[in-house]
């Protein structure tokens, strides 16, 4: 457990899988230990066959016509909500999910985290109200339109862990008490879930497909049998990224049905350790954190470039971590340590790494509020909606969502900041492998071909 001071406020960071850190003002800080853990899938509507579902909202609203640059807090901190955190945003940017900390319903009990779903015009709504025996949890990932949400729940028993995934008709992935599991990411189309499950032999990354009936273990890296975690899945579920133990040490990986699990290596210098946290829509770009001589550093990986460090924000100890990536792989968000503590960043090939707060302050039509944006945890597919966690003006941990309009040049296909022959050949390579969905309709076809070449011959301003 690590304690640090930021802007004259003390915080506790809990370095364990069953803890959530709760920020407080002054010298007060609380580490909330969470009990029995379950991985769970939530669905936003009942089907014709019936069955138990968690229904976040009967009709999820969209963006309410909000345009331009805007920033909004997620939830209202008060007597019923002690803290919130925004973990992810749907690919279309309309739905935010995460956790909110509420006081215990038992006198003298500890506060408990609860998953929520939030929209700009619908506000926040707690989930899990219909599942008996569930004390709390956290929503971690959400599909397009908010139709499928995955995360973890915390049971009332102080011991034992159990996997629970609720579908429209049954419970799947049920494991014996004493085994821990997690659901960490869902594909944009909502058909594939990934996570990890523990047994007596270790911890294994899995992918859950085939109408939520099929579970496939992703295997191991050479020399590291017995431990792997899946953290992200591509838009259609055909590529998975995460971390696995290898003969060299913990290593970021990408998994595909064709090639299985492949290690991505590490950044030069420092102890060997890397981890992948997010993947682009077609699986071609992966981001995470690797080790350098100066510590952990955010990276972006492609098959062509390999693992490339993204730098860090000015000040601090040069530590940074990439947490999310846009659908086309061009925009990366995360957090970086500065003299003020961890701060949220946004990165692209043209402008490099910037503080999210600086970008907002330069484009908002009003003064940016007195927030400390500590991490950017999620980003929409087009890169315009970013969500994260921060410290609000009253000193409490609170989630936030920001909309920053993005102008992307389609001619810069490989996202290196310029339009040239490299983009031409990169597009052709992906087009003939079926992964060049320029217009975002879920298919690679002649419309994508003409869309790219129209943009390519127009060029970038």
Q: What summary fits the major beta sheet?
A: 4 strands, antiparallel
Major beta sheet, strand line-up: 6-33-32-31
Strand content: 35-45%
Number of H- or I-type helical stretches: 3
Radius of gyration, rounded?
Answer: 21 Å
Q: What's the CATH class label of the largest domain? A: Mainly Beta
Uncertain segments are 1-38, 41-62, 156-178
Number of strands: 33
| Percentage of residues in helical conformation | under 10%
Distance from N terminus to C terminus (CA atoms, Å) equals 49 Å
Mean pLDDT: 76
> What structural class results from the helix and strand content?
mainly beta
> What is the CATH topology assignment of the largest domain?
Methylamine Dehydrogenase, Chain H
The shape, in one word, is globular
CATH superfamily annotation of the largest domain: Peptidase/esterase 'gauge' domain
What is the domain total for the residues? 3
Based on the coordinates given, report the CATH architecture of the largest domain: 7 Propeller
